[in-house]
Amino acid sequence: VLSRCMSLSVVSLASSDIVLDQITGDMIAATWPHIEPLLQKGIDKVATEQTTAAILAGLAEHRYQLWAVYRKDKPLPLLAAIATYVRQTNKGQVAVIDTIGGRDLSEWFGAVLDRYIALAKEHGITRIQIDGRPGWARQLTGFRKVRVTMERNI
Fold this sequence. Notes:
alpha+beta; six-stranded mixed beta sheet; 6 strands; 27% strand; globular
């Protein structure tokens, strides 16, 4: 089922065996058993109000977009799952990468981020935002800090 579902909206990355695939419509339910555990893995790494149930509800309401990352020659197991949304700000539309969960980051992250940025530009979006753990900053070349969240255990 996953191979058939994912072939509907494949966006191949140039000179790569990695695929970034937007999952839409009925394919969300069909692929959710493979995607949900990866999103949960990303959620579990931080203190957040985000849940996979909230992402699923956001997908049903067309507020979120869902992406799968996989090897072209071996779709399962997935390399990653990504939940995104677009929000309006006083400075225009911003594409927000909300939740990422996966494995083998060095194999796919740079190419997938580049492709996502290109897709956002094609849709008139001029900024991308990612909130995450401090370790993400090492992966996000070309990004700058625009705000900081401070936390203290009490």
